[in-house]
Amino acid sequence: MAAMTAAEVGFQDPPDDQPGWVALAQAVFNRQAGRWDNQTCAGGLRWQIFPFNNGYDYKNSITQGSFFNIAARLYAYTGNETYAEWATKTFKWSLDVGLISGAYQVFDGTDSAINCSDLNHIQWSYNTGVYMLGAAMMYNKVC
Questions:
Q1: What is the DSSP string of 11-61?
Q2: Does the model's pTM come out above 0.85?
């Protein structure tokens, strides 16, 4: 997200022999898109990458929200519809699984080991914040 901010505000790119800010954000996006997990909960990203890490079964709002945030911002910055599709897919998945309630409360997470059938209803402001910025970027680009 910091690399995306650097691009958005026109911060000077790294030297020519290093990737620029947008390229860095795109690399993160591509890595995360490749980790989208349709094997449990009909989608979503796991909190941890490796099965031996505690929290591997957790699918949480900060992970989904950060991915949504980057996708939405890349869409707004580049106009590439693939980013809009991923942003929409991620936000919809978060709604469908219940991480975002009908009243737009953002809950911490759920467990893929039980097919995301129960939620951890703790709410953290940073979870809401990443979704808010992504939603604002989508709104500004679409409307």
A1: PPPPPTTS--HHHHHHHHHHHHHHT---SSTTS---S-SSTTSTTTTEEEH
A2: yes
